[in-house]
Amino acid sequence: MRYTGFSAKQKCAMNWWMPGxxxxxxxxxxxxxAVRSGKTLAMGLGFFLWAQSCFDGRKFALxxxxxxxxxxxxxxEILPQLGSLGAKWKEKRTENLVRVTFAGHTNEYxxxxxxxxxxxxxxxxxxxxxxxxxxxxxxxxxxxxxxxARCSVTGSRLWFNCNPAGPSHWFYKQWILEAKERNCxxxxxxxxxxxxxxxxxxxxxxxxxSGVFYRRFVLGQWxxxxxxxxDFFEPEMVQPVPxxxxxxxxxxxxxxxxxxxxxxxxxxxxxxxYRVKEFYFxxxxxxxxxxxxxxxxALAELAEGKKITAVIVDPSAASFIxxxxxxxxxxxxxxxxxxxxxxxxxxxxxxxxxxxxxSCGDCLREMEEYVWDLKSxxxxxxxxxxxxxxxxxxxxVSTVLSRSHPGFVxxxxxxxx
Length: 417
Description:
About 35% of the residues lie in helices and about 20% in strands. It is α/β, with parallel strands linked by helices and about 425 residues long.
């Protein structure tokens, strides 16, 4: 089996280290740019081919935000393809180790998750011949620097790939803007650099994203978050509650004591989730606070006797969750990754998978007032204002729909017998 259909940029990402290449003297490579542009596959294949060609009996590191993400995004794609080229590999999951034999050489690849600052301690003390960072912008600087410092073997190289973040991100400043000073090859990928991606699929991605996420994931820009979070949302997208039977019901809840509490009732009809009704209580506005018991009663009134599959609740609302469970509700703690949740919610709104009905006035009000915090420094953040219905909507999407609508996968290799 031989592999064809690689673009010129993908071939460069795989072969830049080879003798005779104009970039053979570089000590690092960064591949950034649009989603589904073929950079992860090209870099992963290139990394293993480089390591197996240039070293024998050495240790390497494969780094992702989590070990599970790295196995899913890199190893599950790359190892079978190496095997088809004649490589032999064996994974020891308990040791987070992959041993590869290819081209007469055997090397060991250790898998690391760079989730937070404490992750740097995991890689201390190792001597490495190279390291691959998958989605490096999601890892803390301390972890990345510690892993780079482990590469002390002569001829070692650093391999980075990522989708863009904001222009104040430390990686953009230190590795993209200073690539030449660091003797680093920088390759910027666009969807057009993936020959397996059809025009139809490219247009689908253009429809899915908007605002800052469109600029980052479709245009591949290191763009600053700005303005309204859901800047594409227009009054024409609001609908009345549809007539007819609903197949399933959920309630999502952002719980507050001093801050407002927001609950949304979601009904499924013809593969579309409608936010048909809401409860919104602002204690400062009402000049009084409600108890957990009163909120539970409000939730029951919102449900109106419907069979609720589950109540999705802010994970920090421990006391309220306890009251709901005591009263017999099925409760799921919400997934609370803000930026990922906003991105998924934007996709669902744009694609029409979720619809906010005209009966949800506070949710519609917040859609206009929910904005990015432009003074947040190096991280993308939203202002903690007018965000309570936005949070309960995000909880619903992240916890229910992200599981049932995982999206689609596009391969970036064409294979020919």
